[in-house]
């Protein structure tokens, strides 16, 4: 059965968010969708822009008959794990996430994604 734009759009493609130290703001890409990249002033706006970019990329790929690879299976991963951290780090993360206007969970995901992207290039 032929997949629709919405089928692909709702698939869980890996999103990488990296802080742009030179220009400011954040760059977002989907490694499994080559060339699908955008940016935003804040983490939130970058993620919003990324969803628009993902939709536009998928639309263009479907129109041009480009093969769209499905994301790697994530079934082996629940998306949750427990982490013990020092209280001082907990306070710092809570304060930074509040300043960014996002949940501490979103902020930690951003930090982990950013650092994971750096180390995966080494």
UniProtKB/TrEMBL annotation:
> This protein's superkingdom?
Bacteria
SUPFAM superfamilies linked to this entry: Ribbon-helix-helix, TTHA1013/TTHA0281-like
Any GO BP: regulation of DNA-templated transcription
HicB-like antitoxin of toxin-antitoxin system domain sequence ranges: 18-79
Instruction: Give the InterPro entries listed for this entry.
Output: Arc_rbn_hlx_hlx, HicB-like, Ribbon_hlx_hlx, TA_system_antitoxin, TTHA1013/TTHA0281-like
Name used for this protein in its record: HicB-like antitoxin of toxin-antitoxin system domain-containing protein
Record organism: Agathobacter rectalis (strain ATCC 33656 / DSM 3377 / JCM 17463 / KCTC 5835 / VPI 0990)
Q: What is the lineage of its organism?
A: Bacteria, Bacillati, Bacillota, Clostridia, Lachnospirales
């Amino acid at each position: 059965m032929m997949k629709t734009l919405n089928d692909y759009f709702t698939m869980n493609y890996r999103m990488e968010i990296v802080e742009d130290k030179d220009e400011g703001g954040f760059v977002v890409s989907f490694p499994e969708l080559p060339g699908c990249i955008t940016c935003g002033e804040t983490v939130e706006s970058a993620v919003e822009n990324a969803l628009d970019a993902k939709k536009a990329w998928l639309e263009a790929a479907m129109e041009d008959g480009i093969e769209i690879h499905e994301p790697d299976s994530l079934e082996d991963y629940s998306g949750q794990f427990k982490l013990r951290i020092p209280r001082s780090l907990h306070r710092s993360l809570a304060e930074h996430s509040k300043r960014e206007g996002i949940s501490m969970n979103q902020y930690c995901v951003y930090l982990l994604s950013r650092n994971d992207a750096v180390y995966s290039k080494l």
